[in-house]
Amino acid sequence: MSIVKVIEVIASSEKSIDDAVRMAVVETSKTIHNIDSVYVKDIKAHVKDGQISSYGVICKVSFRVDAV
């Protein structure tokens, strides 16, 4: 039987929403393994001087817990 844990992470990128989601996975995978999926809960863009300066995402990352 597998147990799946879900954590929430926040990531950002100056390039795109897609890159922000990728950064969420890259950074999370440095300390968490067995990542199965990412659910994007919320998206936002930061604006500076009338232009989008960065994109932010709140993601739920699901991963399988190691059997003991």
What does this structure look like?
It is a single chain. The protein has 68 residues and is α+β, with helices and mostly antiparallel strands. The chain has a single domain (4-64), classed as Dodecin subunit-like (2-Layer Sandwich), CATH 3.30.1660. It contains one helix and three strands. Strands 1-3-2 form a three-stranded antiparallel β-sheet. Strand 2 (35-48) and strand 3 form a beta hairpin. It starts with a strand and ends with a strand. The relative contact order is 0.35. The model has no long low-confidence stretch (mean pLDDT 95).
**Share in helix:** 10-25%
CATH superfamily: Flavin-binding protein dodecin
CATH class: Alpha Beta
Overall shape: it is elongated
Over the alpha carbons, how many angstroms does the gyration radius reach?
A: 14 Å
Structural class: alpha+beta
How would you briefly describe this protein structure?
This protein has a single domain, classed as Dodecin subunit-like (2-Layer Sandwich).
How is this fold's topology laid out?
Blueprint: E1 4-13, H1 17-28, E2 35-48, E3 51-64
Antiparallel strand pairs: 1-3, 2-3
How would you describe this structure in keywords?
18% helix, 68 residues, single chain, Dodecin subunit-like
